[in-house]
């Protein structure tokens, strides 16, 4: 095949009709009080990569790993190739890349820092709806890699992984995506508006409910926590449910995402409203009713990413949601809501949690010369 033929299948130079996307060269600052990727506007693409420490890896090894990740992330997020980057051209499109690092419960044991582990940092209790698979559950370390372009995410995950391969073994990589016009809420693969009720970045509520103030755990000031749940969707049986059934199950209108008692997506659901026969307009078993916080302290930042992967033989789909919750205190904020959903949520008939992990998110890196997690290891 000649040069012209090769270019026709994508190996040639960029043609005149190819353009940079609006976000291709945009960068998100790496250094700061908080790690980027939480308060940042949600991206189109994400990869969560979970790792376990290799046998014999201890405190100094983990510090070395974090120094490597800090240097790599500080470069890649600004569109600069990492040191020893074998594909430096792929770093030229940062596309609002963010890299967020988290620590699992057992990292504190391996590094001799169990006394500094937050009290809420442990795997979630077993819920009756769970069918957890080891391939998507737990990990000693997590990377959350986000960007507007999938190639940028893939390159960053590979660079960050291979540079520490002597210290960790990969446990899982979970990739997701979300599509929505700017300023609009995404839809999940059930067709529902997903993520309406959350906390607005840049507000006092966000600072109070998402970022830790260091009162009980001084080294964590400016940090947070992450709960990652992989939720499989039975789309084949969901297809058999009509629009009315779907709306009663979720408690929101399919077309607009508005609660069944309202007209706009952001309207507050009225869980006390009844129809002329005295039947609740929003069923008590609906997802909206069960997920509703009972007091202000149960609020947290919610974020979802769709996943759609190759189905097993004989199946039509392998799809679902990567649900992420960020909050100061998992026990006080996330756990009560999850317990209510596990006990009695109409949506449970079509959704099954198959993965679960909890991580502490250390504060950001204040400036060059510091490293991720330094507050834990040196303060």
From TrEMBL:
Q: Where is the chain membrane-spanning?
A: none
Superkingdom, taxonomy of origin: Bacteria
Pfam families, per this entry?
A: Dyp_perox_C (PF20628), Dyp_perox_N (PF04261)
Could you confirm whether the keyword Disulfide bond appears in this record? no
InterPro entries xref list: Dimeric_a/b-barrel (IPR011008), Dyp_perox_C (IPR048328), Dyp_perox_N (IPR048327), Dyp_peroxidase (IPR006314)
Which residues are in the Dyp-type peroxidase N-terminal domain?
35-178
Span of domain Dyp-type peroxidase C-terminal: 186-365
What cofactor does its activity depend on? heme b
Alphabetic keyword roster: Heme, Iron, Metal-binding, Oxidoreductase, Peroxidase, Signal
Q: Would you indicate the residue range of the signal peptide? A: none
- Any GO MF annotation of the entry: peroxidase activity
Quote the cellular component terms of the Gene Ontology held in the record.
Answer: cytosol
- Could you say which protein family the record assigns here? Belongs to the DyP-type peroxidase family.
Q: What is this protein called?
A: Dye decolorizing peroxidase
Ranked from the top, the taxonomy reads: Bacteria, Bacillati, Actinomycetota, Actinomycetes, Mycobacteriales
């Amino acid at each position: 095949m000649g040069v012209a033929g090769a270019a026709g299948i994508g190996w040639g130079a960029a043609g005149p009709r190819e353009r940079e996307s609006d976000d291709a060269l945009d960068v998100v600052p790496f250094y700061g009080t908080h790690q980027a990727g939480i308060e940042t506007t949600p991206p189109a693409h994400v990869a969560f990569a979970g790792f376990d420490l290799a046998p014999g890896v201890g405190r100094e090894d983990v510090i070395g790993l974090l120094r490597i990740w800090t240097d790599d992330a500080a470069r890649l997020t600004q569109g600069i190739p990492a040191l020893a980057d074998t594909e430096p051209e792929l770093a030229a499109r940062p596309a609002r890349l963010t890299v967020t690092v988290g620590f699992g419960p057992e990292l504190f044991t391996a590094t001799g820092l169990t006394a500094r582990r937050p009290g809420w940092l442990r795997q979630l209790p077993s819920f009756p709806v769970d069918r957890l698979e080891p391939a998507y559950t737990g990990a000693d370390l997590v990377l959350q890699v986000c960007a507007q372009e999938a190639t940028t995410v893939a390159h960053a995950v590979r660079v960050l992984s291979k540079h520490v391969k002597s210290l960790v073994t990969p446990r899982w990589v979970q990739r997701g995506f979300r599509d929505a016009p700017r300023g609009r809420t995404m839809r999940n693969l059930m067709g529902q508006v997903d993520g309406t009720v959350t906390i607005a970045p840049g507000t006092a509520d966000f600072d109070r409910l998402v970022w830790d103030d260091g009162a009980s755990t001084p080294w964590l000031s400016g940090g947070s926590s992450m709960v990652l749940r992989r939720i499989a969707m039975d789309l084949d049986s969901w297809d058999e449910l009509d629009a009315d059934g779907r709306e009663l199950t979720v408690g929101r209108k399919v077309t607009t995402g508005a609660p069944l008692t309202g007209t706009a997506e952001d309207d507050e659901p009225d869980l006390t409203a009844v129809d002329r026969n005295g039947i609740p307009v929003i069923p008590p078993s609906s997802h909206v009713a069960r997920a509703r916080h009972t007091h202000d302290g149960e609020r947290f930042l919610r974020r979802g990413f769709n996943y759609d992967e190759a189905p097993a033989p004989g199946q039509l789909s392998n799809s679902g949601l990567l649900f992420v919750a960020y909050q100061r205190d998992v026990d006080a904020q996330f756990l009560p809501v999850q317990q209510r959903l596990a006990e009695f949520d109409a949506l449970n008939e079509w959704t099954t949690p198959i993965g679960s992990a909890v991580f502490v998110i250390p504060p950001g890196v204040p400036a060059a010369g510091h490293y991720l997690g330094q507050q834990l290891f040196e303060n």
